[in-house]
User: Fold these one by one.
Assistant:
Number 1:
Amino acid sequence: MTILSSDRQRIEKLPLKFTGPYIDFIDDTMSAVQSDLKQTHDYLRRNQMKLAQGKREGIFTEYIFIHNGYEDRRNYANVRLRNHTEELMNIYFSKAKIKKK
């Protein structure tokens, strides 16, 4: 959501003839992401699970998973997180393209 929101603001400022279609495309994608995030949050709440971002240390980011009183801390490489974010954006963009047809 952060990346899409940032990109939307940048597109609004670009000297393009038609910014509307790009903004609509990003808005549709953001709507789909928000819907999926709501489902994920509902699932976590129902199953009494929590996910929190921990420390960022250099090239790693820590995530904390909490379930049934147990806490699991895992470090993920920022490069891997970035690549996975890009994969997810491609999936959501593909869905938005199909939806528009």
Number 2:
Amino acid sequence: MKNYPPQFKADAVTLYETRPDATIKSVAAHLGINPETLRNRVRAGRASHPRGRRTPQTAQPPAPPEAKNAALHKKIREREEEREILHKAAKYAAKYSTGQTRW
């Protein structure tokens, strides 16, 4: 059984909740974790923060250039979050695969 650091768990839940089009299965596959693990973390987060539930966004298109810029900035933030989470996971995995720590 893998033991992930608390920050990685929180980041995974945040990644799922900030992407309205994402599914638990797709986010879990992207991060390389079991979907049930992510589902349990999301449920635990909702139990402790009931107002933090994921809500679908309403479609209200702003002016075309502003909308395009906003969408691109949002994608950049999402990619940066994903990259940071994957970077932390890689560091964590490398730490245990090289034998630097004792199990």
Number 3:
Amino acid sequence: MSISSRTARTVRILGVASASAALALGVAGNALACNISEFSAVAKCDGGKGVIVVTDVDASGTPANVSVFLENNSADARKVGVQEVKGSALGTTVTFAEDWQPNATYRIRVKAGHQVDADIQPNLTTPSRACTTSETTPPASDTPKPSNSPAPTPSSSASPSGTPSQAESTAPATTGDNSPSPAAGSSNLAETGASSSTPLIAGIAGGLVVIGGGAVFFGMRRRGSSKANRAN
């Protein structure tokens, strides 16, 4: 059975169309597939603290796990963390809080199902200047300087609190009267009006009165006798 030329032409047209459709589907599938080139990372500061931000621009939205490692001598020194991200045409980001040091190196690993299992190339190198804030590094003019002078010691001559000093507790001496102060015996006599020697003084005074009276009496008698003798 022979095939007509018209049938052969139709078969060729269908073959070419099928191949074109398969090629278009293949290209579209590759365009929608997740790829490591759709991931990027950057180290920056957020409010004075260091962060690492990973961006996924995979339009297919394939879920991917992103792991961040701190490198030291081309080896993993510490795992910072792992987060899941679903990309978008506008880009989806995940942020890792990391107090990174200047010029440090980080490896970012991306795993998205069976499509991607690779590192973002090249490795991430942090900026040469660390994140700082005004709170952690205040200006020098606002920083109080401690005083090196020793604390003052209280003077030994100072009176304790609440205790009157000698000048306050002692009444000032009177300067207007220069007369000598009376003796202790006179002071006692002035206060009591008598002393233990008062009877003796009174007795002596009485004796002197009697002697004086007797002397006057005998004197007058003798004078009278003299006048009588002159008359005779």
